[in-house]
Amino acid sequence: RPRSHTVTTTSSSFTANLSASSSTLAYDREFLRTLPGLLMVTEIVLGLLVWTLIAGTEYFLYPAFGWVMFVAVFYWVLTIFFLIIYMTMTYTRIPQVPWTTVGLCFNGSAFILYLIAAIVDASSVTKELDSHNYNSWAASSFFAFVVTSCYAGNTYFSFISWRSRTLQ
Predict the structure, then answer these.
(1) Quick check: 103 and 158 in contact, CB under 8 A?
(2) In whole angstroms, what is the distance from residue 58 CA to residue 69 CA?
(3) What span, in angstroms and rounded, lies between the C-alpha atoms of 58 and 168?
(4) Contact yes or no for 145/118 (Cβ under 8 A)
(5) Within the chain, which residues score under 50 in pLDDT?
(6) DSSP 8-class letter at 5
(7) What DSSP state is assigned to residue 3?
(8) pLDDT tens sequence across 124-142
(9) Could you tell me where this protein is found in the cell (predicted)?
(10) 28 class by beta-carbon count within 10 Å (0-12 exposed, 13-18 middle, 19+ buried)
(11) What residues have CB less than 8 Å from 84, skipping those under 6 apart?
């Protein structure tokens, strides 16, 4: 017996709404003039310096430097991600996300893990270990502590922002 073939099509307005809403992307140039914005740029520049100073050596022979590399690269990438979110004001388009809490958790974890990584980095640098890489490792240790202090500052600003949101 012959079958009847019925094709039902539906259309969605999702793609039309998506293309209309994403065409106007905001850009907050003033964010880079704030102290949290300047700290974020400093974290990116000096964080890049931390992991490139280590990456240019035979760090893979020493597990401690592998940990420092992981922390430095991981938070470098995430900091770039958050800078883009703040510069493009994406946080205003996704109000379901508690951005003050996310920022506090991100900066707080970055501060704690970077502090541990900086201490590990500094305690692993010895001339006896590998004198060829000594200067790079010593410089990466110094910059890791500077980046740690930047994340501490941003943690403070995130806490102030989070607290003002939770008190309302």
Answers:
(1) yes
(2) 12
(3) 52
(4) yes
(5) 8-22
(6) P
(7) P
(8) 988 776 677 889 999 999 9
(9) Membrane
(10) middle
(11) 90
